[in-house]
Amino acid sequence: MRSAGAAYDGKTETGTVRRRFGTEETVKLKIGCISGDGIGPEIVGEARKVLERIAVRYGHEISWTDILLGGASIDAHGVPLTPEAVQAAKESDAVLMGSIGGDANTSPWYQLPPDRRPEAGLLAIRKELGLFANLRPALLYEELADACPLKKETSEAGFDLLIMRELTGGLYFGARKTTVENGLRTAVDTLVYNEYEIRRIAVKAFDIARKRRGKVTSVDKANVLDSSRLWRAVVNEVAADYPDVELSHMLVDNCAMQLVKDPAQFDVILTENMFGDILSDEASMVTGSIGMLASASLNDTKFGLYEPSHGSAPDIAGKDIANPIATILSAAMMLRYSFDLDEEADAVEGAVKQVLKEGFRTADIMPQKDAAGSGAACRKCSCSEMGSLIAERI
Ligand code: NAD
């Protein structure tokens, strides 16, 4: 048996290479599991069900380590993140996470000082794990095209893009201050990037484009900002090592327009922290289905933290009605990006497409019946039924 963790020490240990040489060895997946708060335990339970099915189907072995974070950790230990939890995450090859947090108006967690609240734990673990690259795919499923708020001809064309956002630099981490100058309140934020930070995220974007359709659009504001001019120069340097990947540059204001006008033109969008923050929410919204959107945060090894883009939905927690697909697709990203098990990731994504095609829907993606009766062909299912249906199709 081979540990997938050993993949970090050399490329020859990855699942990809295992397949290239045609040997069918068992890969051991050491996965940390943060069930989280609200609907977290329900949706993570379904993603685990799907991963267990993958393990049986492809002959791999999964070892799970449960890790407490956020509200669940506050309840157990009085703090949103313990050193033991950080250690357990670091010892895993990858971490699967449900969302954390509760209802800010009613949950006692929000009576605590800000640094003891659930979200403080999330920020701290991201920092501890050195997660500098955030990946948010936005994919419009043909079966859910009615939920897309874009023009019919745009939604009918479909789209499948991924936003790669730099997560630990730029405006959100630069020096800032508010002063009074000549009697006027004056605020300054600083947007700083060095070439190392730009290069490492660009490399990730090009590597991931190779696993997709081989296209990177780097988004900046190089007509105004020095940081963007450096961004563009370094991205061009990295591109020289990837002659098989097509690179183009786009200004951020144009990109915001193009995302609603013609999202099908994009494969991987590479951008800095603040632009990515805004564009990734825009890209999510154009799919129209929050329960379907996966995400991953990566560091400079194969390690990643995989979680749905949505929150912990305390309004529907414990009712077995949440949509587990975003978390299941996050698990597929884990197979692809942390373990290089592309065939297994394809199998999970294919199973999701299949259940949608067969008309199964959780409540959030169930079409409203109109006078003409559209939506009648769909069948509503619970969170646990949806997980089982997907697992059965692998
Ligand atoms: P939310 O995403 O939890 O919910 C927004 C709406 O979408 C709600 O009506 C909810 O029921 C629905 N929804 C979300 N996910 C769904 C799913 N899988 N299936 C069906 N419906 C779903 O956002 P919010 O209400 O603003 O935040 C709730 C809590 O989640 C807060 O404590 C917030 O801080 C936290 N949060 C955590 C993360 C994270 O862990 N990374 C991200 C965002 C929000």
Give structural notes.
With 394 residues, the chain is α/β, with parallel strands linked by helices. It has two domains: 1-133 and 290-394, Isopropylmalate Dehydrogenase (3-Layer(aba) Sandwich); 149-286, Isopropylmalate Dehydrogenase. It is 39% helix and 19% strand. It has helices at 15-20, 40-58, 71-77, 83-90, 118-128, 152-157, 195-211, 226-239, 252-261, 273-287, 325-337, 342-357, 383-392, and strands at 2-3, 27-34, 61-66, 94-97, 133-139, 160-166, 176-181, 184-189, 215-220, 246-251, 268-271, 294-298, 304-308, 360-361, 379-380. The strands form three sheets. Strands 1, 2, 3, 4, 5, 6, 9, 10, 11, 12 and 13 form an eleven-stranded mixed sheet that branches. The longest helix has 19 residues, at 40-58. The chain binds nicotinamide-adenine-dinucleotide (NAD). Nicotinamide-adenine-dinucleotide is lined by residues 39, 43, 99-102, 119, 122, 290-291, 307, 310-316, 322-323, 326, 364.
Summarize the structure.
This protein has helices spanning 15-20, 40-58, 71-77, 83-90, 118-128, 152-157, 195-211, 226-239, 252-261, 273-287, 325-337, 342-357, 383-392; strands at 2-3, 27-34, 61-66, 94-97, 133-139, 160-166, 176-181, 184-189, 215-220, 246-251, 268-271, 294-298, 304-308, 360-361, 379-380.
The helix content, as a percent range, equals: 25-40%
Could you give the distance between the termini?
A: 23 Å
Q: Give me the CATH fold name of the largest domain.
A: Isopropylmalate Dehydrogenase
List the uncertain runs. Answer: 1-23
Task: Label the CATH architecture of the largest domain.
Answer: 3-Layer(aba) Sandwich
What would the average pLDDT be, to the nearest integer? 91
Strand content: 15-25%
Q: Specify the overall morphology.
A: globular
In N-to-C order, the SSE pattern is EHEHEHHEHEHEEEHEHEHEHEEHHEEH
Largest beta-sheet characterization: 11 strands, mixed
Name the bound molecules.
nicotinamide-adenine-dinucleotide
| Coarse structural class | alpha/beta
Count of domains: 2
Separate helix tally: 13
CATH superfamily of the largest domain: Isopropylmalate Dehydrogenase
Q: Measured on Cα atoms, how large is the radius of gyration?
A: 21 Å
Q: Find the count of extended strands (DSSP E, 2+ residues).
A: 15
User: What is the CATH C-level name of the largest domain?
Assistant: Alpha Beta
